[in-house]
Amino acid sequence: VLFTQLFENNSSAIAMLDRDLKYLLYSKRWLTDYGLGERDLHGLSHYDVFPEIPQRWRDLHQRALAGEVFSEEEDPFDRADGRRDWVRWLVRPWYDQTGAIAGLIMFTEVITARKEAAEKLRRSEELYRALANQSLDIISRVTPDLKISYISPAATRALGYTPEELI
Protein backbone atom coordinates (compact mmCIF):
# COMPACT_ATOMS: atom_id res chain seq x y z
CA VAL A 1 0.00 0.00 0.00
CA LEU A 2 2.80 2.43 0.88
CA PHE A 3 4.60 1.68 -2.40
CA THR A 4 1.39 2.32 -4.35
CA GLN A 5 0.80 5.62 -2.56
CA LEU A 6 4.38 6.74 -3.16
CA PHE A 7 4.10 5.77 -6.82
CA GLU A 8 0.70 7.33 -7.49
CA ASN A 9 1.50 10.58 -5.69
CA ASN A 10 4.96 11.02 -7.16
CA SER A 11 5.48 14.47 -8.71
CA SER A 12 6.93 12.83 -11.85
CA ALA A 13 5.01 11.17 -14.67
CA ILE A 14 5.66 7.47 -14.06
CA ALA A 15 3.92 4.33 -15.27
CA MET A 16 4.58 0.71 -14.36
CA LEU A 17 3.43 -1.85 -16.93
CA ASP A 18 3.41 -5.65 -16.94
CA ARG A 19 4.96 -7.79 -19.72
CA ASP A 20 1.80 -7.32 -21.83
CA LEU A 21 2.21 -3.55 -21.38
CA LYS A 22 -0.92 -3.30 -19.25
CA TYR A 23 -0.96 -0.65 -16.55
CA LEU A 24 -0.22 -1.79 -13.01
CA LEU A 25 0.58 1.59 -11.44
CA TYR A 26 0.85 5.18 -12.63
CA SER A 27 1.25 8.57 -11.06
CA LYS A 28 -1.39 11.28 -11.06
CA ARG A 29 1.13 13.36 -12.99
CA TRP A 30 0.99 10.72 -15.78
CA LEU A 31 -2.75 11.35 -16.10
CA THR A 32 -2.25 15.13 -16.04
CA ASP A 33 0.63 15.30 -18.52
CA TYR A 34 -1.21 13.20 -21.08
CA GLY A 35 -4.65 14.77 -20.63
CA LEU A 36 -6.24 11.56 -19.35
CA GLY A 37 -8.31 13.23 -16.64
CA GLU A 38 -9.35 10.85 -13.88
CA ARG A 39 -9.34 7.83 -16.18
CA ASP A 40 -8.65 4.47 -14.51
CA LEU A 41 -5.84 2.87 -16.50
CA HIS A 42 -5.35 -0.25 -14.34
CA GLY A 43 -5.32 -3.31 -16.58
CA LEU A 44 -5.58 -1.30 -19.82
CA SER A 45 -3.07 -1.80 -22.61
CA HIS A 46 -0.66 1.08 -23.08
CA TYR A 47 -1.36 0.90 -26.82
CA ASP A 48 -5.13 1.14 -26.29
CA VAL A 49 -4.62 4.26 -24.18
CA PHE A 50 -2.18 5.71 -26.74
CA PRO A 51 -2.97 4.18 -30.15
CA GLU A 52 -0.86 6.88 -31.83
CA ILE A 53 2.40 5.59 -30.33
CA PRO A 54 4.88 5.35 -33.22
CA GLN A 55 6.28 2.00 -34.27
CA ARG A 56 9.81 3.05 -33.27
CA TRP A 57 8.63 3.40 -29.65
CA ARG A 58 6.81 0.07 -29.82
CA ASP A 59 10.04 -1.53 -31.01
CA LEU A 60 11.96 0.06 -28.12
CA HIS A 61 9.37 -1.27 -25.66
CA GLN A 62 9.98 -4.80 -26.96
CA ARG A 63 13.73 -4.36 -26.69
CA ALA A 64 13.32 -3.02 -23.14
CA LEU A 65 11.31 -6.14 -22.30
CA ALA A 66 14.45 -8.03 -23.36
CA GLY A 67 16.57 -6.04 -20.88
CA GLU A 68 17.67 -2.85 -22.63
CA VAL A 69 17.29 0.65 -21.18
CA PHE A 70 16.45 3.62 -23.41
CA SER A 71 16.16 7.35 -22.92
CA GLU A 72 15.69 10.48 -25.01
CA GLU A 73 16.00 14.13 -24.01
CA GLU A 74 13.74 15.62 -26.72
CA ASP A 75 11.46 13.35 -28.69
CA PRO A 76 8.41 14.41 -30.72
CA PHE A 77 5.12 12.65 -29.94
CA ASP A 78 2.46 13.29 -32.57
CA ARG A 79 -0.85 12.92 -30.77
CA ALA A 80 -4.05 11.45 -32.18
CA ASP A 81 -5.71 14.89 -32.03
CA GLY A 82 -3.07 16.40 -34.31
CA ARG A 83 -0.99 18.10 -31.60
CA ARG A 84 2.73 17.55 -31.34
CA ASP A 85 4.09 17.14 -27.85
CA TRP A 86 7.76 16.96 -27.04
CA VAL A 87 8.71 14.37 -24.46
CA ARG A 88 11.77 13.57 -22.39
CA TRP A 89 11.67 9.91 -21.38
CA LEU A 90 13.35 6.87 -19.89
CA VAL A 91 12.08 3.30 -20.39
CA ARG A 92 13.57 0.43 -18.43
CA PRO A 93 12.60 -3.07 -17.42
CA TRP A 94 11.59 -3.93 -13.86
CA TYR A 95 12.30 -7.31 -12.29
CA ASP A 96 10.28 -9.67 -10.10
CA GLN A 97 11.59 -11.51 -7.01
CA THR A 98 13.17 -14.23 -9.17
CA GLY A 99 15.13 -11.68 -11.23
CA ALA A 100 12.98 -12.14 -14.33
CA ILE A 101 11.84 -9.12 -16.30
CA ALA A 102 8.24 -8.52 -15.23
CA GLY A 103 7.46 -5.44 -17.28
CA LEU A 104 8.49 -1.84 -17.94
CA ILE A 105 8.70 1.35 -15.97
CA MET A 106 8.38 4.58 -17.95
CA PHE A 107 9.53 7.92 -16.61
CA THR A 108 8.42 10.81 -18.79
CA GLU A 109 8.22 14.58 -18.85
CA VAL A 110 6.22 16.54 -21.40
CA ILE A 111 8.58 19.38 -22.34
CA THR A 112 6.46 20.99 -25.06
CA ALA A 113 6.14 24.36 -23.27
CA ARG A 114 9.90 24.51 -22.65
CA LYS A 115 10.64 23.54 -26.27
CA GLU A 116 8.24 26.22 -27.58
CA ALA A 117 9.75 28.86 -25.27
CA ALA A 118 13.26 27.98 -26.49
CA GLU A 119 12.10 28.31 -30.10
CA LYS A 120 10.51 31.72 -29.40
CA LEU A 121 13.74 32.86 -27.75
CA ARG A 122 15.80 31.60 -30.71
CA ARG A 123 13.57 33.52 -33.16
CA SER A 124 13.74 36.64 -31.01
CA GLU A 125 17.54 36.46 -30.84
CA GLU A 126 17.68 35.91 -34.59
CA LEU A 127 15.53 39.01 -35.18
CA TYR A 128 17.62 41.07 -32.74
CA ARG A 129 20.84 39.93 -34.45
CA ALA A 130 19.48 40.82 -37.91
CA LEU A 131 18.36 44.27 -36.71
CA ALA A 132 21.66 44.97 -34.98
CA ASN A 133 23.71 43.78 -37.96
CA GLN A 134 21.75 46.00 -40.37
CA SER A 135 21.57 49.10 -38.19
CA LEU A 136 23.40 52.25 -39.22
CA ASP A 137 24.03 52.95 -35.54
CA ILE A 138 26.72 51.28 -33.49
CA ILE A 139 25.12 48.75 -31.19
CA SER A 140 27.24 46.99 -28.63
CA ARG A 141 26.93 44.59 -25.72
CA VAL A 142 29.37 45.01 -22.87
CA THR A 143 30.03 42.46 -20.12
CA PRO A 144 29.95 43.46 -16.42
CA ASP A 145 33.76 43.66 -16.48
CA LEU A 146 33.47 46.20 -19.34
CA LYS A 147 34.62 43.95 -22.18
CA ILE A 148 32.87 44.24 -25.54
CA SER A 149 31.12 40.95 -26.29
CA TYR A 150 29.28 42.21 -29.40
CA ILE A 151 29.52 45.25 -31.63
CA SER A 152 27.55 45.81 -34.78
CA PRO A 153 29.11 46.06 -38.25
CA ALA A 154 28.36 49.82 -38.24
CA ALA A 155 31.45 50.14 -36.04
CA THR A 156 33.64 49.43 -39.08
CA ARG A 157 32.19 52.39 -40.97
CA ALA A 158 32.41 54.76 -38.00
CA LEU A 159 35.61 53.63 -36.32
CA GLY A 160 37.56 51.86 -39.04
CA TYR A 161 37.90 48.61 -37.10
CA THR A 162 36.09 45.34 -37.71
CA PRO A 163 33.85 43.99 -34.93
CA GLU A 164 36.35 41.15 -34.41
CA GLU A 165 39.18 43.66 -33.87
CA LEU A 166 37.10 45.65 -31.38
CA ILE A 167 36.00 42.56 -29.47
| Secondary structure: number of strands | 7
The percent range for strand residues is: 25-35%
Shape: elongated
Tell me the structural class: alpha+beta
Describe the main β-sheet briefly: 5 strands, antiparallel
Task: Report mean pLDDT, rounded to a whole number.
Answer: 91
In oligomeric terms, what are we looking at? single chain
Taking pLDDT < 50 over at least 5 consecutive residues as the criterion, the unreliable ranges are none
- Spatial order of strands in the largest sheet: 2-1-5-4-3
Which sequence of SSEs, written as H and E, runs from N to C? HEEHHHEEEHEEHH
Number of helices: 7
**Rg from Cα:** 25 Å
Query: Percent of residues in helical segments?
Result: 25-40%
Report, as a whole number of angstroms, the end-to-end distance: 63 Å
List the defining traits of the structure above.
alpha+beta, 37% helix, single chain
